[in-house]
Design a protein that fits this description.
Layout: H1 2-21, H2 24-31, H3 37-56, E1 58-60, H4 63-89, H5 92-99, H6 102-114, H7 120-137, H8 146-168, H9 175-197, H10 206-231, H11 236-241, H12 245-257, H13 264-284, E2 300-302
Antiparallel strand pairs: 1-2
Helix pairs in contact: 1-10, 1-12, 2-10, 3-4, 3-9, 3-10, 4-5, 4-8, 4-9, 5-7, 5-8, 6-8, 7-13, 9-10
Length: about 300
């Protein structure tokens, strides 16, 4: 019972991250200037990463320099870039449904990199979750754009690799330090891309500053700290299934804050997503708790 309670607590703490990510669309459309997705992504990642880096005062050493930039690209730079391409070329519902394939990709990659067996119920849970997301966000006249679909799939694959490799490589530092490395690396990689592909930002308003602060401090630093902490304690496929909560929160915010209506199909989608998350966690619940691996020697040095 103690094992189950500890695991449930880890799941609930980790679930806070994708729940907060569900507010990204509302914050972006309500508080930020439109047409600067890569610049906003850079401002979301880099200041938050540098702030955390100042707190932990540790830099990677040896192989962890390369790994930090690889994970920063997979979890932030490339993932966010593909996410924005998908969002621009596809209706929001189609983009979210394409991205919902990520938990199934994580299941396959966990088998490849971590040697985890592919569990039938976990696959079923992933399919139920995808169907629930489709009911939540798809509209009858949604159109498919090949480039947008490819970008959405590429983004899902990118974060799936980032999720599994974050566990596979077992960082020899705290979750706070690990988060600071990845956010900083991801933000650095976004700087030249945003500079070349987008015009300069207009003079920010108070609302713009508030939106960026929320996305950086809450939507990036805080949430990814919880996310990487969770990846060290629960199975990657179980963590990935929690991502289904993001469109649930986004839909609820649209209903509560933007006056959007809820249809019977969306209510059914809510139920299917929650059932999917429950089934996935039930399937992946370990008999004994997962503990983060201890490092035999430090892998970082003071700044």
């Amino acid at each position: 019972m103690k094992t189950n309670s500890r695991y449930l607590a880890d799941v609930l703490i980790t679930a806070v991250a994708p729940a907060i990510w569900g507010s990204t669309y509302f914050v972006t459309t309500s508080f930020l200037p439109q047409g600067y997705p890569l610049t906003v992504a850079m401002l979301r990642a880099l200041p938050a990463g540098l702030l955390l880096l100042l707190i932990v005062r540790k830099l990677p050493r040896g192989v962890w320099w390369g790994r930090a930039f690889i994970l920063g690209a997979l979890n932030f730079s490339f993932f966010w870039a593909m996410l924005f391409v998908s969002a621009y070329r596809l209706p929001g519902g189609v983009a979210a449904t394409v991205g919902a394939v990520q938990p199934l990709i994580v299941i396959a990659l966990s088998r490849l990199f971590l040697g985890k067996p592919i569990r039938y119920l976990a696959v079923v849970a992933g399919l139920i979750g995808m169907s629930g997301v489709a009911l939540l966000v798809l509209t009858p006249n949604a159109a498919l754009d090949p480039v947008g679909v490819a970008a959405g799939l590429a983004g899902a694959v990118s974060m799936a690799f980032g999720t599994v490799l974050s566990r596979h490589w077992e960082p020899p530092v705290s979750s706070l330090t690990f988060t600071s490395w990845q956010l900083t690396a991801g933000g650095i990689l976004l700087v030249p891309v945003a500079f070349v592909l987008e015009p300069g930002l207009p003079m920010p308003t108070a609302a713009n500053i508030l939106g960026i602060a929320h996305l950086g401090l809450i939507g990036a630093a805080f949430t990814y700290l919880l996310w990487f902490r969770g990846l060290s304690r629960i199975e990657p496929s179980a963590a990935a299934s929690l991502g289904f909560l993001s469109p649930v929160v986004a839909t609820l915010l649209g209903w509560l804050a933007l006056g959007q209506s809820l249809t019977p199909a969306q209510i059914a989608g809510f139920a299917m997503v929650l059932a999917s998350v429950w089934l996935s966690q039930r399937t992946m619940m370990p008999l004994r708790p997962i503990r983060p691996a201890a490092s035999p020697e430090p892998a970082s040095r003071p700044v």
